[in-house]
Each structure stands twice: as C-alpha cells, then as structure tokens.
Design goal:
By secondary structure, the chain is of the alpha+beta class. The chain is built from 3 helices and 3 strands. It has helices at about 1-20, 20-30, 50-55; strands spanning about 30-35, 40-45, 65-70.
C-alpha cells in the first residue's frame, strides 16, 4: 500500500512540475509530447505512441510515475 501511495505522490509531483515549467518546455518542445520524470525529459516526439516507443528503447519499464504531456505552442486557458 505504501508503494502505491509513493507512486501516486511521485506522479503528482511530475504533473505539477510539468504545469509549473510549461513555458520552459514550450520553448524547446512546442507541439510535441514529452515524458517527464523528476524534472527531466525522458523522451519526446510527435505522438504519444512515439514517446512510448522511445521509453521502451531506453528500457524504462515502470512508467507509472512518468508524466506524459502535450506541449502546445500556445498557452491555453481552460474555462469551466
């Protein structure tokens, strides 16, 4: 149970890091998908499938905590 909670916390931290650093990511990875872990870009590509293939090539097996984001070239604001 502790391991699951730790993975959920790490996943949330990765997602928060992505949101907090989107401008930085946008300057280098605009209109691409990125896989992020612990403040590092592990892989990027034109599609989520391409990113997953890159992660497999790098032999990253546990992707449960990795944040996968599409980096839009435009800053988007969602109104609900």
């Amino acid at each position: 149970m502790i391991e699951i909670r730790q993975k959920m916390e790490r996943s949330a931290k990765n997602k928060l890091w992505a949101m907090s650093n989107m401008d930085k990511l946008r300057s280098k990875y605009a209109n691409e998908y990125v896989a992020l872990d612990n403040g590092n870009v592990l892989a990027f590509g034109d599609s989520a499938g391409e990113v997953f293939r890159e992660l497999r090539k790098k032999r990253i097996k546990d992707i449960s905590t990795i944040a996968m984001e599409f980096v839009s070239e435009d800053s988007l604001v969602w109104l609900l």
